[in-house]
Specification:
The structure is a homodimer.
Chain A lengths: L4 E2 L9 H5 L10 H16 L8 E7 L2 H12 L5 E6 L2 H12 L3 E6 L8 H9 L6 E5 L1 E2 L4 E2 L2 H11 L2 E5 L18 E5 L10 E7 H5 L12 H11 L8 H16 L2 H22 L15 E5 L8 H10 L2 E2 L1 E2 L7 E5 L6 H17 L5
Parallel strand pairs in A: 1-12, 3-4, 3-5, 5-8, 8-9
Antiparallel strand pairs in A: 2-10, 6-7, 9-10, 11-14, 13-14
Helix pairs in contact in A: 2-9, 3-4, 5-6, 10-12
């Protein structure tokens, strides 16, 4: 029953107050629960930035991937064509989801260590048969790279296509002008930068684009428009909501506001990330990405060249000391990842770094 | 911040220890979390009764409806035909899900106050083009009626069709011999008779039937076979699991065992239900169902004939006193429901009844 700090992209470490908010059983039709859902939806919309009046927040049970599938499966019509710009596993997952749904999909592939290029997206959108929808990941958690959603949104907007953004690991932690980036559907989840517990995802949908989903959803459970209509009609979910995770999320949103909103949170994550980079590079670890592409969300490091380095041992030794890091997910290179989001602070980074030093010394891996 | 007792079909009242189990953030790849998932899956299988060796437990994020859609959408092949025996809203929901997925579906309709008749199911299965799959709800939460899953299973088995059972509100609370009833896929969820918190559902699948789902799933998120393969391969969920709800469920399963398993729990629910019937009929409330059709899970009562009875006021007055009951869901009759599952005991029923008496007296509704 050791308490461990999670340096992961979520589920992540949450505050004691967020967890404490789950110590009650509320009925899903209870007035207080309905008020909590209303507060959450309103607060999420306000996080979308200027122009957020045109947006609606729809909560969707399940993991973030369920919310992604809900958006794709509810928004792309039969006969629609989807372009997905891919530079990591989460871009590939959108392609997989769309193809499974029978949607004609084209993957525009980029290297995993390079941001999606808006110019190439523009070219692809303008070549051949028109695309009705285009999608990209904001912060590709595979590496921690940030994609230029503003310029990509501009390119998509010029073609009139609907723009869908997977902002799973960035929303709430990196300022994003959702309307300014011409985003029609933005998807994130409870257990990322808002620092709630897992159990549901959410979609910020431009109201006019959401209303165009009429009759399109391929699934009852993941029907985004029906879910919104349910929440609008009587404030209730159509199907059993994760009541405890919702109460935790309400508390998490209040803590986000207390920290100074997205800007305040981004400042802490940036301080976490800067401390991590200083510590890790001082120990000789080499980050995978060029610094200018790197988000403050999660950082990928190459395995040390030392022949005695074994990731599983390294991971386990840190875990025994109470620090949980994250394996890599690259297609070709041996890397591991360290997240800098959640209820962690620069002092925790210093403690993690001290543990890394200990583990390296113990394994005889210090140079 | 009043603590209320929930007399609802779930989310329901959970024990303090179940909620306390959520006071930790575990990484989704953490060894302890993986061990918790393994323990849960193994325990769920053992709850299936004799012959459970042939079954696999697959956990699925989202509400119970998501798990239902996962089973239907993963098991019925293109060209398959599904018969759903319907005597309430949850049977109708299976029809809606299957139709949305493009599955040729026939609804065999029964009155809401009569159990599904196995003979009629048999006739329908043998009339016209053959059905590949048949589905029924065990305890139809709409009314609280119990359907004879054993005799229906026998009828389905004789035709060779795959048998799917929505045991959402009964599994863990009413003994069921899953193999003996010839069930191929049984679906339930965390926040029902096992008394966990909402966040995921689960499917008990006959291994041979599960393996026949290869290439069939219409959804990536709700792909039951892929979810099982993920859990079997490295013990991990394919997509972010509701870690806190999982820890709560592990604790809930241990409490179920301590209570004497399904038989012990059923005894308490039956005592709750008997106490409720005594109290409510003594006050003049009329149950909707004939006693022999009634489960101990949830009971439907007709609105009193008194012209001053207003359900919303009745509900609100009880809620202010800390007792949450449940509205009706019948297509034609004005009823409300009272659940007798969750961490509630006959003494709680007595307290609820005292509150009902108070509320009736206050409103001048006593005869």
């Amino acid at each position: 029953m050791t308490k461990k700090l999670l340096f992961t992209p979520g589920p992540l470490s949450t505050s004691a107050a967020v967890k404490n908010a789950m110590m009650r059983d509320l009925g899903s039709r209870d007035a207080e629960f309905i008020a909590a859902v209303r507060e959450i939806r309103s607060e999420l919309v306000s996080l979308a930035g200027p122009g957020s009046d045109d947006y609606e927040a729809v909560l969707m049970q399940g993991s973030g991937t369920f919310a992604i599938e809900s958006a794709i499966g509810s928004a792309v019509p039969r006969g629609g064509r989807l372009l997905v710009a891919v530079n990591g596993a989460y871009g590939r997952r959108m392609v997989q989801i769309a193809e499974r749904l029978g949607i004609e999909t084209e993957a525009l592939l980029f290297a995993e260590d390079e941001p999606v290029d808006a110019g190439h997206v523009s070219e692809a959108l303008n070549a051949g048969a028109p695309f009705t929808h285009a999608a990209v990941v904001h912060c590709e958690t595979t590496t921690g790279i940030l994609n230029p959603v503003d310029r990509i949104g501009e390119a998509v907007h010029r073609t009139g296509a609907v723009f869908m953004v997977d902002a799973m690991s960035s929303f709430g932690g990196i300022p994003l002008d959702v309307a300014g980036c011409h985003i029609d559907f933005l998807v994130s989840s409870a257990n990322k930068c808002v620092q709630g517990v897992p159990g549901f995802g959410f979609v910020l949908a431009k109201r006019t684009s959401l209303l165009e989903c009429e009759g399109l959803a391929r699934s009852v459970s993941l029907d985004l428009l029906a879910q919104w209509r349910g929440l609008e009609t009587d404030g209730q979910f159509r199907f059993t909501p994760p009541t405890h995770a919702i109460l935790a999320f309400r508390r998490a949103l209040r803590e986000l506001a207390e920290e100074g909103g997205v800007a305040g949170r981004c400042a802490r994550y940036s301080a976490n990330h800067a401390a991590l980079m200083d510590e890790m590079t001082a120990m000789g670890f080499v980050p995978y990405l060029r610094r200018e592409y790197q988000s403050p969300i999660i950082t990928t490091f190459r395995y040390p060249a030392h022949p005695r380095f074994h990731f599983e041992q390294f991971y386990a030794a840190l875990s025994r000391r109470g620090f949980v890091i994250y394996p890599g997910k690259l297609t070709r290179e041996n890397c591991f990842r360290i997240g800098t989001i959640g209820n962690i602070f620069p002092a925790d980074i210093a403690r993690l770094a001290a543990a890394v030093r200990e583990v390296l010394a113990e394994a005889g891996l210090t140079s």
